[in-house]
Structure formats: C-alpha cells, structure tokens
Specification:
The complex is a heterodimer of chains A (about 280) and B (about 300). Chain A has about 280 residues and is mainly α. Chain A has two domains: about 60 residues, no CATH class; about 170 residues, Orthogonal Bundle (MetI-like fold), CATH 1.10.3720.10. Helices cover about 70% and strands about 5% of the residues of chain B. The chains are: A mainly alpha (about 280), B mainly alpha (about 300).
C-alpha cells in the first residue's frame, strides 16, 4: 500500500518517531509477558526463594505445587463448575437469543419494535446495580447456592447483546430462501432451524465468544449466589484460595497460573476469533 | 385468513417469549424493583414504610453516608478521567500505529489483546502480589538502582487508587487499541491517498482526516469507559479489599454499594433502602453519562 510506504520513507524526525513508537509497543509487550513469565517461574519456587531471588529461575522446580492446587485445593472442581455454568448459560443464550432474533427480524407485526426495545433495554445498564432485587428474587425462587441461579442471570445478561447482533444479521438474509423453503413445506421452526440458523453460524460464533468470556470471568454473581465450596467457579474459588493462603506465595502463584494459563493457551490458538468476538459490540 | 393470523401470532410468541420471559424477570423487574425499593425504609429484608426520597436525601446529606458516598464518587471520577486520559490516548496511538503497518504489527496486535482475556480477579490478585512492599515491582526498582522509589503501592492513601488504575490500564489498553485499529482501517484509502498527494503531514492527516472519521468509535469507547468506571468493583476487591483500604482511599461506588447492600463492613447490617438508592444512582449516572457522551460526540461526527 502506497500510503504506508510514504509514511515510512519520511524525514529524520519521522524515522525517530517511528523508532520511538516501535519501542513503546515493544515495552508494552514486555510489560505483558514478563509478569506472566514471572508468575509461572514463581509458581515453581518455594516462597522463600520468591523473596530472596525474585527474578531467578527456580533452582529445583516444584511441579508438585500444581497437583496440590488442582487436586487438594479444588481448582479441578472450580474449573468443572466454571465450565458447566458457562456452557449451560451459552447454550440457552444462543438458543433463546437466536429464536428471539428470528421472531423479531423475520416477521412483520405491530409489537415488533416494542419487543426489540424490551430486549435491548438491558444492553448498556450494569445488572450488578440491581443485585438487591435479584438477591430477593433468587431467594424466593429457592435458588440460593444452586448453579441455576447464576445460569439464569448470565442468560439474562447475554440476551440483549445477542438479540442486537443476531437480529441485525438475520434481517440481511434474503426472503427468497425462506419462501423457497416454505414452498417445499417447511414450517416456521424448520425455516429457523434449517434455513436461517446455518446462514447465521458466523454471527453465532461471534456472539458466543462475546458472551462466553465475560461469563467465564464473572466474579460478582457467583460471589453473591454460590456459597458452597463445591459450587464455586474459578474466579470465586481463586478469591477464597487467596483468603486462605495469603502468606504462601508459592502456592498463590500456582493458583494464578492455573487460573490464567488455560485462557492464554486457548487464545494463542484462536486469537483471531477472540479479537473479533470480544470487540464485536464496539465495532460496526 | 383469521386462522393464518392466529398461527403466525403463535409462532412469533413461541420464538420470542422464552427470551422475553428471562429478560423481564431478571433484568426489567429487578431494575424496576430497585427504583421501587429505594423509596421505602427497610428492616433487614422486610419492606417498611414508604419514605419517598428519604434514602436519597440521606446519601447526599446524612452522616456517614454523604462522606462515604462523595469519597467513593470522587474515586470513580478519578477512574474515569485517568482511564480516558491515559488508556484511551494510548489506545488511539497504538490503534493508529498498528493501522500504519509498522513492522511486526500483526504480532503486536495479537499480544496487546492477551490481558483483555483474563479475569479482573486473576489480574487483580497477580498485581496485588507484585505491588506488595516485598513484591516484584519494588524488587525491580531496587535492581535498577531506583530503590528510593520503592513503596507500599497499595498501602499509601495518595497512590493506592492510582496503582489500581494502572493495573487496570495494563489489562485493558489492548481493547481500545484494537477498536481504534478497526476504525482507522475502515477509513477509505483514497481519502488518505488524496491527502498525501496534497502533501499533508502525518500529524495533520490524523487530526483533520482520520480523527473526525473515527469519532463513532471514540463515542463507543467513551461510553464503555463511563460504564466501566462506574462499575469498578473486582479491581478494588482483589487489591485493597472490600472496604477500600487504606482508610477508604480506594473505595468506589461499587464497593460501597456492596457493603451497603450486604452489610459487610461499615455498619454490620444490610441497608436495603440506602443500597437500592445507590443502585438507582448508578443506573441514572450510567444512563445520563452515556446520553451526554453520545450527543456531544455526535455533533462532531463527520459523514463521508
């Protein structure tokens, strides 16, 4: 591209600036990687070694730490819980969200705008601020300390953005495809399931990442609604783990590594999807 | 005819109602109930007498609510200003640089986004350890001969909030960077080309041509920054604790709201009325600030 070449040719001042900016970006890369690297090497040291030699490599790597944290400290269970809660929430976010989008974008009726607005009313507002009525509601439904409580709230949290993104996408699908299917004898469900949904797949992938990452990482709602240790998700489990072992830095770094590394590894394989998905709400 | 209308109505209901039910029950109803509850006095979880705006009056003028509330709100304002000023400026800079295809831009782009994926809780605890007096940050300063600058980053009133904000910028700056990158990439190449042919410099090019065209993204990021700043909770919870120590210097609306609603630290008892009122204030501020931000940037928006 010519525009870019021109930028790079430039005068001395420009080249200096480029060098400066390039350095700034490299510094940020180091600032990202070094703390993560130090976290991993610290997880393999003893607490005493962390304090005495914070930058050195572990002299005798203590891999046993990972077994202790994963098995004895229950991180295996926390991961399982996070997985269950995120997966179940997302299945219903995608199912209800795509159905609602279909109902909003593929039919013409009077209440359509109203229905759409009702869904969107929650899109910008932080649900956290309504924790008191939610708490009372969950209590009255008898869902305290049950995974269904956070699943329902995550489902509600995920629907507005899902309906926003999917209904815009579905609106763009040509009518002819639908008519052809109807002539072939498809009912509305079959049109949704066999015509519209397959075409919507890319947008579904986007919506899934957009919602699954915040749900996986959410701390507030599991903190309020899940008290039993056997139900805790990774962020809440990490939090109580930090409360119990505040002086055992070796173990703390192991816990952090276990909480952070899986996401990092997943990202390295799917970075393009993560970037597209997570910025989906902010980019037209 | 009648029959097909009924059938169509049934199908629409079938598709729309499950989602609508969830949204109504878990978003709209709680929203409405916050407002409703804030107008009553409460005894634990039992609703008492209707008191009108008394709860709001207490927050803005009663002891100790007023002091706590204004202190927390001040910190949220600090969060907003510093995030706008530092994080979003770096975000625009990085976004623009990445769009200029400097060597290694694909690599930078991927790496910058890594911390965005991590939970605030994990990031908060990690940096909480690094920022301890015995932590890595001070060790690094000593190693570089800057030991005089070593301090209790989260233990001193003047810098604790700044430290937490810095950590949050570390985690999040990749997000505005990539949003702005996408925005700059969407600026038509012939626009830039024409400007280059006219001999416009990079600085003028950015302010006169690129920036006006990416205003919609600036709006989006500003609104997200407002919402994010009003919702700070986990960052403080993990790094300095629920009561915003030292001496409430890192307290925010989010942590104050939590303490009020669940009665953990200050008074020992949950105060549903006051808590609901704070919830309503959070909603109103989010709403007003978003509207203002959208209107003020829309007036500067340029259509191609």
């Amino acid at each position: 591209m010519t525009t870019d070449l021109r930028y790079q040719r430039g005068r001395l001042l420009r080249n200096t600036l480029i060098l400066l900016f390039q350095t700034a970006m490299i510094i940020y890369v180091v600032l990202i990687f070094y703390p993560l690297f130090n976290m991993v090497i610290s997880s393999l040291k003893s607490t005493r070694e962390i304090f005495q030699d914070p930058f050195g490599l572990p002299k005798a790597p203590r891999l046993a730490n990972f077994r202790v944290v994963w098995v004895d400290k229950g991180f295996g269970i926390y991961f399982m819980n996070s997985f269950i809660v995120t997966a179940v929430s997302m299945v219903f976010v995608v199912l209800f969200g795509s159905m609602a989008s279909f109902g909003i974008s593929r039919y013409a009726y009077k209440a359509r705008t109203l229905v759409y607005m009702l869904f969107l009313s929650g899109i910008m507002l932080p649900l956290k601020a309504a924790i008191i009525p939610l708490f009372i509601l969950i209590k009255n439904l008898g869902l305290m300390d049950r995974q269904l409580s956070v699943i329902l709230i995550f489902l509600a949290m995920g629907l507005p953005s899902t309906v926003f993104i999917l209904s815009a996408f579905m609106k763009g699908i040509p009518r002819d495809l639908e008519y052809a299917a109807r002539i072939d004898g498809c009912n509305d469900w079959m049109v949704y399931r066999m015509v519209i949904m397959p075409i919507t797949a890319p947008a579904i992938a986007l919506v899934t990442i957009y919602n699954a990452v915040p749900i996986w990482n959410d701390f507030f709602f599991p903190l309020v609604f899940l008290q039993s240790n056997r139900l805790k998700t990774v962020p809440v489990g990490l939090s109580s783990f930090f409360g119990q072992h505040s002086t055992d830095w070796s173990l703390l770094f192991t816990g952090l590594s276990i909480a952070i590394l899986p996401m990092l590894i997943l990202y390295l394989f799917m970075s393009r999807y993560f970037i597209r998905g997570m910025t989906a709400g902010a980019i037209k | 005819m009648m029959k097909t209308d009924v059938r169509k109505g049934l199908w629409i209901s079938f598709f729309v109602l499950p989602g609508l039910l969830v949204v109504t029950l878990f978003i709209l109803l709680p929203l409405f109930m916050s407002l409703f509850n804030s107008l009553f006095s409460w005894n634990q979880l039992l609703r008492g007498a209707f008191v009108g705006l008394e709860n709001f009056r207490k927050i803005f003028s009663g002891y100790p609510y007023r002091e706590r509330f204004l202190n927390a709100l001040g910190n949220n304002a600090k969060w907003f200003l510093l995030t706008m000023l530092i994080q979003n400026t770096i975000g625009i800079l990085f976004g623009y640089l990445l769009s200029r295809r400097l060597p290694g831009h694909g690599f930078f782009k991927r790496i910058f986004f890594i911390p965005v994926l991590f939970s605030i809780v994990a990031v908060g605890f990690l940096w909480g350890l690094y920022l301890k007096p015995t932590g890595l940050v001070n060790a690094a300063l000593r190693l570089m001969g800057l030991g005089a600058y070593a301090r209790a980053w989260l233990g001193q009133e003047e810098i604790a909030t700044l430290s937490i904000i810095a950590v949050n910028i570390w985690r999040w700056v990749g997000f505005p960077s990539l949003v702005f990158l996408a925005a700059v990439d969407a600026v038509p190449a012939d626009c830039l080309e024409a400007a280059y042919l006219d001999g416009v410099g990079e600085w003028t090019l950015f302010w006169r041509i690129v920036f006006p065209l990416i205003i919609p993204s600036v709006t989006v990021i500003s609104v997200l920054t407002i919402i994010g700043s009003l919702n700070v909770f986990e960052q403080v919870y993990t790094m300095t604790g629920l009561d915003g120590s030292p001496n409430f210097s890192t307290d925010t609306i989010g942590t104050l709201f939590y303490r009020t609603a669940f009665g953990s630290v200050d008074s020992g008892n949950p105060e549903i009325g006051i808590g609901s009122a704070i919830g309503v204030i959070i909603y109103s501020l989010t709403f007003i600030a978003s509207i203002v931000s959208i209107i003020s940037t829309r007036s500067r928006e340029v259509e191609l």
